[in-house]
Request: fold
Amino acid sequence: MPYANTNSVVAADLNNMVRGLYRDNTSHAVTGTTDETTMGTVSITAGTITATGALHIIAAGTGANVGGTAKTIKLYLGATAVATVSRTGANAQDWMIDAWCFNTTAAAQRWVIYHSTADAVTLTADYTTSAIDTASAAILKCTATLTGATETVTQTAFDVFVVQVT
Reply:
């Protein structure tokens, strides 16, 4: 609902709103290694997501096909991988993950995840649950694992939004 320009926003108005938590739209490339490597990371401080709050995460980028080997991109909250995008050796298309994490309590989440399959246009939807204590700090990260060290995966967007629902 729009606010009249004569009104002011008070704390109560900020309930049930979306706010940006983190944004990194610079390029972070992984190449020359077959180890799982972090492309983007943000610390979710304790209590950032309330017991009924949510996160909206968008991660996207590109993948090169130099050596014809597979590439895997994962999204983690804490030590839990909640989304995985796999690319075959002959696939050099872009990739994306669009994830919603809904707290049902401070230590239980429901995830709705859309991610690219063969290219950034062909999407699949997943639903999963996790038991991460968001009353404590947790790391949200996006990683890449290359099967061949000559391949490259680049993250070009990693944006995180907090949704507080009261």
In short: The chain has one domain: 29-163.
